[in-house]
Amino acid sequence: MIRKLLPLLALSALALAPALAPAQTYPAKPIRVIVPFPPGGGTDILARIVGTRLNEANKWTVVIDNKPGAGGTIGIAEAVRMPANGYEMVMGQKDNLAVAPWLYSGLSYDPSKDLTAVALVAESPLVIVTAANSPFKTMADVIAAAKAAPDTITYGSPGNGTTTHLVGEMFKMAAGIRITHVPYKGSNPAVIDTISGQVSMMVSSIPSAMSQVKSGKLRALAVTSARRSASLPDVPTIAESTALKDFDVSSWYGLFMPAHAPKEMVRTVNEAVNAQLALPEVKASILAQGAEPRPISPEAFATLVKTDHAKWKGIVAASGAKLE
To answer: From which residue to which does the signal peptide run (predicted)?
Structure first.
């Protein structure tokens, strides 16, 4: 009886081998991570921290590919067209996945259907910064100046439709003031123009502005979350520095694959990223950028994306913002 079963067991093992091979050998070639913003911005910095760690610790080859434009939607649109083979990923964030679908009438992707959540890397409040020699010392100063001279104060952002853009609009509406939005193609050029005084201030991710705040070229006026940032403990919240007591907005950054990516590959990347995020040196690198690491499961990350997507529908509608 045993002799009769042996050939059958051998055939079963051979049949299972192809299915098991991808998980055993993955990744067998370089993984491309699209960053939908220019080099130097918060999304790019965090993607490179994670990519470098996976290269060094796991001996993977993770290649960062910057594809900026249209508030990050160009890079996301390219990512959803890529094959779902586990070797194409994108570093997405709240801007282009939870917010953009309610802003852009002709958006070519649906984040709930066209992408697979893989690993949440970090969360971070936004920060409002101004040049070191700016007359503004607090957000109360900004409100007072805007009321005294409507439409004279400008604020930069990494682009139309980003969370930073909408936070500026939310602040404007909540404070009852008139300030003018100046969109840029990414954080770096907006930071440069804020330092030089070409724009009065900027709504930025903390990672994008952190180095210039530390160097003294930018002054941080306030963070947008309900609590102070661990990376900028001396910077007040908007709620602390103004009468806007309920103001609370944060952003998140994470890795996605195209829809229907192999589950075993999603799990492999998630576990590898989470292992790195748990290390003290990686935590320190991310905290130094003003973000906080958030190792969670792919399922929990997918739920976060879905929840924020629903939440921002009302916020965008209230702002009246619409982009083509």
So the answer is: 1-23
